[in-house]
Design goal:
With 163 residues, the protein is an alpha+beta fold. 37% of the residues lie in helices and 25% in strands. InterPro entries: Bact_exopeptidase_dim_dom, Peptidase_M20_dimer.
Length: 163
């Protein structure tokens, strides 16, 4: 109630309805944004150039009796480290890392997947160089040379990059 000493308080009033001109302006902005996004998608190169699997194979063994043998998991980890050191981080994605078959063994196998982005040829060359360097680092760390045998099998880690 309003009295002489207290005038009525103003109530909240909703904004006036938008006119067709306002709606057209909003729709115009949306069409411009959609057109810009479509143009960037059509003119940008494909993001994913190639997806590959990198597999490692080594002699493996029990962690007690075969201490010092090369490990396929260690070689794979060294390869990923070399990729991080030598390749642009935006040019690849590593996923699906796995290997070995028990907690107390030296892994005889390891695998991971790599999605290469951008130039497929350059990416594949950089990946191959990084993986080779990682494998060589593990073989060097364990003192293994090409042709060395351990338990009648090759002592060195080998790798395959496949689509």
């Amino acid at each position: 109630m309003a009295s002489a000493s207290h005038p009525p308080q103003a109530r909240w009033a909703p904004a006036p309805p938008k006119t067709n001109t306002d709606q057209e302006h909003i729709m115009s902005k949306r069409w411009i944004a959609a057109g810009a996004m479509l143009a960037s998608l059509l003119t940008a190169p494909l993001a994913l150039a190639e997806s590959v699997t990198v597999s490692f194979q080594g002699p493996g063994g029990h962690s007690n009796g075969n201490y010092g043998r090369t490990s396929a998991v260690h070689a794979a980890a060294r390869a990923i480290t070399k990729m991080a050191e030598t390749m642009d981080a935006a040019s690849y994605t590593v996923s699906g890392f796995g290997g070995g078959n028990s907690v107390n063994s030296i892994a005889s196998d390891a695998v991971f997947k790599v999605d290469l982005k951008g130039d497929a040829v350059a990416g594949r060359q950089a990946l191959t160089a990084a993986v080779a360097a990682g494998v060589q680092a593990e073989n060097d760390f364990r003192g293994v040379k090409p042709g060395d045998l351990t338990g009648g099998v090759p002592a060195a880690i080998s790798y395959v990059i496949s689509p």
